[in-house]
Amino acid sequence: MYIFAAVRSSRKKPWPLYRTVFWSIGVLFAVMSVAGPLANLAHTDFIAHMVSHLFLGMLAPLLMVLAAPMTLLLKSLSIPLARRLTRILRSWTSRILTHPIITSLLNIGGLWIIYTTNLYSLMHENTLLHLIIHFHIFAAGYLFTVSIIYIDPITHRFSFLYRSIVLIISLAGHGVLSKIIYAYPPNGVPLDQAKLGGMLMYYGGDAVDMVIIFILCLHWFRATRPRASLTMS
Prior knowledge:
Number of helices: 12
Helix content: over 70%
Strand content: under 5%
Structural class: mainly alpha
Oligomer: single chain
């Protein structure tokens, strides 16, 4: 659907190829996390589970956010439908789902619940629960990324400072959780796998977070540079 919309949009104005590449790679990482060899191994190997968690909850959402799917959708729709979608984006529901604090609680808070309770072991015993948790990991990761870096148009904008503070606190929560996993493995996870999984979560998460930090700081710099130039002149 994304590629079809990109082709249709390019009839009027070329849609950036790199965004289509970002979307395709993001979808690939998301699918690898829930289907195929990695997903099958993740049922019994905590290290593979953590790799799939990083792909599904962090890397895939980041790549798909960078693909600007909402912008493409607005360009592809007719004017009446685009106006209806814009009204939805301005609704109070959208305001809640894109609020940095709400999304950080859904994202980081959800991970704390999974790995510090019996939920991790339970989801491997119940297929429906397994699907719900994986959907939550992806959706929460996507909404969190959307709320921190503004690639698509968003009506409820928060300041760079506000988003930076929420991001720092979220990074701290993610880092602390990875250390807890390292020292106190979830039920049913061998200690050696928990240590490697915790390190992977810590350093792998930092690698993705560095990209988010870079983009946020770049947007902040671009937004304030004209003011600085005007003040100097």
